[in-house]
Every structure is written in structure tokens, then in C-alpha cells.
Amino acid sequence: MTESRSDGGTSVGRPTGPGSGTGGEIGTEIGGGPETGTEIGDGPETATPSGYRDRLAQTGEQLGALAGAELRLAWRRRWVIILVGLFTAFGLLVLTFAGSAPGPAGFERILASLATLCVYVVPLAALAYGYDTVVGPATRGWLDVLTALPVTRVRLLVGAVLGRGVVVAGGVLLGFALPGAMLILEYGLGVWPAVAAVLLAAAGLGVAFLAVAASVSTVVREKTQALGAALLAWVWFVIVHDLLALGVVAAFDLPDVAVTAAVLANPAAVYRVLVLSLLGAGGAGGFAGGIATPGLTPAVLSAALIAWVVVPLIAAATLVRWRGTLTAS
Q1: How many angstroms separate the Cα of 299 from the Cα of each of 128, 190, 203, 310?
Q2: What is the pLDDT of residue 7?
């Protein structure tokens, strides 16, 4: 709904009426003000340095408000507790059933088991949390209300992904902090760099799949369709791609560039090979355990994991603009 103004116009600065969640939070934080319907820097003054600074400051404030609203919403919906509890429980189960063999070999085996768990659980949790990033507000009618405020669809998307990314990454790091601390206590402080690297990479893996979920969420029209597409994405990246690539590599004598492309085409495979490079041959299992490509250094793999965050987010930003054009037509 909109509110009447004394000058005969209307204002959508603070939406009223039924609705809950992100829309209400954002509407009260970034709406209102005499510039409703416009953005700082839309006029000729944008070309001046002060205009650019004002627009950059407004963008930062809006993204901060959007991310903060997502964080508060995740806390109210218990997503923070769910993610931390889920990762902690599974991590402790891995430590319980993996045993405690002495020496570096025992540590690498347990950490590899923990990494294998991350490959399956972290993407699934990120996709389940992020599948309704865009389609959720759209089906509730809040997306159209929010885009009437002085904020673009792209900023709405980036702010939402930023807030949810903090929740996913924080859930991974906090959830696996206790299992990681137990490993350090068992094998000494010398193993903490390897534990930290594996957990940071797992957090990056979660954010990458969150970006994939956000891009899927911009295409579909119903939340059930988004959930189904997210589950299909998990099956493809985590299970099918791994088996298919391993079969092709085993059946054909492929050049290194083809193997490298097969790894980089899957964020789960990138994480597997990154863990493999940290633990030694065969540590991560699956497709990663069957290859040894010199070009896949930890730096290249880390850059690939970052690219799997950035590229789906760019695609989602493009698709969310297309979604607005399609809705308007």
C-alpha cells in the first residue's frame, strides 16, 4: 500500500499493510524522504566527484540496510541456529566414527572425511537457504513494492545475497569450529593452518552455492519451482557431475586442459581438488582423487571458487533486471 501526501502525490517510502519478512524491514530502513522515486546522482551532478561520492555512499547505506535486514530475518527464522547446529552435529559424528589414528596420516584421513562431509552438506544447506532469495519476495508482492523505493533490483539482490552469505559462511565456520578445535587439541597446534584452510574453503563453497541458488531464484515464478531447481542443481554438481567426469577421465586419455576445465566447471569439484592439494594424493576422494593436474594450484582453485561466487551473482543481476522487464510487460 502507499501513503497519501499533502501535495497530492503518493509516497511508497514506508509500505503499510499485510506482509512480513525482508520487505517490511527494508521498507522502513531505506524508504521515505523527499527523493522518493529517484536516486542520488541521477541528475547532471552525477558527473562531478561529489555526485559519485554521494551515489557510492547511498549504495553502501542501502546494501548495509538490506544485508542487516536479511541477518535479522535469518535470526528470527532460526536459520543461524539451524545451520550452526547442523554443521556441528555432522562434524562431531564424523569425528566419532572416523576414530583417532596417531600421526599425520590419521589427521589427514579425519580431515579428508570432514571435507567430504562438507561437499555434501554445505551445498545442500546453502541451496535450501537461498532458493527463495528473489522468488520469495516476488510471490509475496514485496519485490514490486521495494523496487518502487529509491533502490534498484540489482541492489536488492546484492544486499540480500550479502546478508545471506554472511549467515551461510558464519554457520559453516561456527558449526565446524568445535570439530576443528577438537582436531587441533588431538594433533597439536601445528595442524591449525590445514584445518583453517579447509573450513574457509568450505565457507566459500557455501557462498558459491548460495549465489547459484540466487541465480536460480531469479528465473522461476514459484517457490516450489525454485526448490525443485535447487535440488536438481545439488544432484548435478555434487553427484552426477562427479561420477560422469570420473568415468570420462577413466575411459579416455584426455589432455590436462580438458581435465582442468571439468574441475573448474563444478564448485564442488574445485573444493575437492583444493582439499586434495592440501592433504596429498587421494585425500578428498571421488573425481578429485582420480586426477593430478599440475595447473590446478591452490591459488588457481581459490580464484575459481571466488569466480563461482561472482559469475552466478552477475548472472542473477542480469536476470533480475530481465525479470523486472518481463513483469512490467
Answers
A1: 29, 22, 16, 17
A2: 45
